């Protein structure tokens, strides 16, 4: 009986060690490990996009006319983590109207910088993202932003009229180290 009990304690300690290691291990800052997106939105082809953390929630209208007049039925896109899809239509090219697909339904929005094809970006030497640098499968960086030249990574959330940092890392010898 004691043998099994000690084995379970040992396994619990081992599992705790893995969780501790995963949360606090340095993460490689190699740029090739992240996904990149350009800023081109195509006609008649949906492309993945995200609400930007440094913008307030956005109204999406159920009709093109509603979006153009900024009235009518709408929903509010609030989550910076929600993957959506956007596209243009030549029919509304002069009005800069975006088609926005959320949960399989199409909505409309006048073009805005609040919705982009990336969810992480670089300002000077700092990467800003709603994710930790270890969440590589979720991070989409604006094409041209070089992670390797950043010295700081800030995990940010939307806060009032901008962002709030909830965690940060610094780069040392090509690794992201949590502050």
Biggest sheet features: 6 strands, mixed
Taking the alpha carbons of the first and last residues, their distance comes to 44 Å
**What is the strand arrangement across the widest sheet?**
1-15-14-13-11-10
Calculate Rg over CA atoms.
21 Å
Number of helices: 2
Number of domains: 2
**Total strand count, please?**
15
User: Any idea what the shape is?
Assistant: elongated
Class from secondary-structure proportions = alpha+beta
> Which bin fits the share of residues in helices?
10-25%
Contiguous uncertain segments of 5+ residues: 1-24
Strand content: 35-45%
Report the average pLDDT across residues: 84
Keywords: Signal
Organism: Lactiplantibacillus mudanjiangensis
Protein name: Surface layer protein A domain-containing protein
Signal peptide: 1-21
What are the defining features of this structure?
signal; Surface layer protein A domain-containing protein; 6-stranded mixed beta sheet; 179 residues; 5-stranded antiparallel beta sheet; 15 strands; alpha+beta; disordered N terminus
């Amino acid at each position: 009986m004691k043998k099994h009990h000690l084995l379970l304690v040992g396994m619990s300690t081992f599992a705790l060690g893995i969780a501790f290691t995963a949360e606090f291990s340095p993460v490689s800052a190699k740029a090739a490990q992240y996904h990149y997106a350009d800023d081109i939105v195509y006609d008649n082809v949906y492309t993945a996009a995200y609400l930007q953390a440094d913008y307030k929630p956005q109204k999406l209208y159920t009709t093109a006319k509603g979006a153009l007049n900024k009235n009518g039925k709408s929903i509010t896109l609030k989550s910076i983590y929600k993957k959506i899809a956007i596209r243009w239509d030549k029919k509304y090219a002069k009005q800069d109207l975006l088609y926005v697909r959320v949960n399989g339904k199409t909505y409309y929005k006048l073009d805005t910088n609040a919705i982009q094809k990336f969810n992480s970006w670089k300002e000077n030497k700092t990467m800003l993202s709603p994710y930790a640098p270890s969440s590589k499968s979720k991070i989409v960086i604006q094409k041209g932003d070089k992670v390797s030249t950043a010295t700081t990574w800030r995990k940010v959330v939307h806060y009032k009229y901008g962002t709030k940092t909830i965690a940060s890392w610094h780069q040392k010898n090509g690794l992201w180290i949590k502050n």
